[in-house]
Amino acid sequence: QVHLVESGGGLVQAGESLRLSCAASGPTLSPYAMGWFRQAPGQEREFVGVLSRSGSPYYGDSVKGRFAISRDNAKNMVYLQMNSLEPEDTAVYFCAAGAITGSYSVASMYTFWGQGTQVTVSS
Predict the structure, then answer these.
(1) Which of 42, 50, 67, 73 is deepest in the core (most CB within 10 A)?
(2) What is the DSSP letter of 20?
(3) How much of the chain, in percent, has pLDDT values that exceed 90?
């Protein structure tokens, strides 16, 4: 059982940067793809990005070129660096882990989820 806890959310202005962290307890993260999703009020959970087990990154179109995911398997940590933030990036951000056998962008492919951290970007 993997337990995930996100941190680093907050209120920033448009154009600023923020780094989210995801701390994992339990087994090592190395068998899992590590993804980030976000959910704004009244909207469905949206795929932000993922690092595959082999370390290959994939990003959603809305964040491509602005966000970057990294992982430190030795520390059981995953990070989401968010640059050039826009008001449209406002959401609760979730860290997720899973032994993905299908599409990385589908939330149901992930087994373990954190509780989320709020990111608010003001204009």
Answers:
(1) 50
(2) E
(3) 83
